[in-house]
């Protein structure tokens, strides 16, 4: 039986900080449910989020996260058999299955 080890994990945080209240206003959730954006933000306990520019592709963020993982990993890139990326967004529109 082969063994699989996770030796490192990476992350990539977008450079644009946006207030949660602003995101709520932009989405229209406050109007749809008749709740003040600040109230929703306070209930969530999240005041700001970090985002990438809208044109950034998920694979670009995944590559940045993979490089972050490599920096903290005990192995070098050439020793890797696989890099696994799991996300809910693709780089292009695809049909749901």
Structural class: mainly alpha
End-to-end Cα distance: 32 Å
- The count of β-strands is 2
Main sheet strand line-up: 1-2
Reading the helices and strands in chain order gives EHHHEH
Please tell me how large the radius of gyration is.
18 Å
Helix-residue proportion: 25-40%
Please tell me what the overall shape is: elongated
Low-confidence blocks of residues: none
Report the average pLDDT across residues.
86
Strand content: 5-15%
- Major pleated sheet: 2 strands, antiparallel
- Quaternary status: single chain
Instruction: Give me the number of helical elements.
Output: 4
Your description of this structure?
By secondary structure, this protein is mainly alpha-helical. It is about 35% helix and about 10% strand. Strands 1-2 form a two-stranded antiparallel ribbon. Helix 1 crosses helix 3. The mean pLDDT is about 85.
List the main descriptive attributes of the protein structure presented here.
single chain, 97 residues, mainly alpha, 4 helices, 2 strands, elongated
What's the gist of this structure?
With 97 residues, the protein is mostly helical. It has helices at residues 20-27, 29-33, 37-44, 58-71; strands spanning 16-19, 48-51.
Question: Mind sketching the topology for me?
Answer:
Blueprint: E1 16-19, H1 20-27, H2 29-33, H3 37-44, E2 48-51, H4 58-71
Antiparallel strand pairs: 1-2
Helix pairs in contact: 1-3
């Amino acid at each position: 039986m082969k063994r699989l080890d996770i030796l490192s994990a990476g992350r990539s945080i977008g450079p644009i900080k946006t207030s949660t209240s602003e995101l709520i206003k932009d989405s229209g959730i406050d109007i749809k449910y008749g709740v003040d954006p600040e109230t929703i933000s306070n209930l969530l306990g999240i005041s700001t989020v970090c985002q990438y520019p809208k044109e950034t592709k998920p694979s670009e963020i995944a590559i940045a996260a993979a490089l972050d993982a490599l920096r903290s990993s005990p192995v070098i890139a050439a020793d890797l058999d696989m890099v696994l990326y799991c996300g809910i967004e693709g780089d292009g529109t695809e049909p749901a299955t």
